[in-house]
Amino acid sequence: MKMAYILFDGITLLDFFGFYDPIKNIKTLKYLEHLDWDLCATQETIKDSFGLEIHIDQVYPDLSEYDMIFIPGGYGTRSLQFDENFIAWIRTAKDVKFKISVCTGSLILGAAGFLKDKSATINFKAYEALEQYCPNVLPHRIVDDHNTITAGAVTSSIDLGLYVCKKLIGDEKTEHIIKGMDYHPGNFETIQINTTKTDES
Predict the structure, then answer these.
(1) Beta-sheet strands, E only, within the chain
(2) 20 to 30 A from 59, CA-CA: which of 139, 146, 184, 185?
(3) Over the chain, what is the mean pLDDT?
(4) CA dist., res. 89 & res. 64, Å (int)
(5) Three-state DSSP class for 69?
(6) Would you give the distance in Å from CA 77 to the centre of its chain?
């Protein structure tokens, strides 16, 4: 599996790292034979809202070459949702199996047209902002609509990473990752549209 982490100026880094940490353990523990990722952006380096800089692996790659894209949130999404060049690049992921976002990253999925006729969620402060792109904005922590998976505000990124771990490697191996992280998740509601089943995770 090949993943693209979509990064940009004005990112909220916890959105990214909260998801990245559980996922990288799949590779560290060799739970999948092939798991690779690239940090992808429209420029060679990006900075969060406070100036912390990250160097990028791939600039404007063809996202159709990946199996999963992940888009974090942050203030940068507010303008990027209207940036035609950026959104055209995101649209190259049209046929990618897993399209995943946390917080206001769902605005980018929405602007690219990936949430049309879908259910999704976003930071609780931005439900109305997502309604222009998504017919069914839900107040759940994680919404999985046929592998288009969106999560709420910043700390949900950790739960999202673990949820995706379960999809990729199953419950038992994910529990091992949770114990290794010394993470103690509470109960929250995840809705899986493709199974019309609501799970308490």
Answers:
(1) 2-6, 36-41, 45-47, 53-55, 58-59, 68-71, 98-102, 119-120, 136-137, 142-145, 148-151, 189-192, 197-200
(2) 146
(3) 94
(4) 10
(5) strand
(6) 13
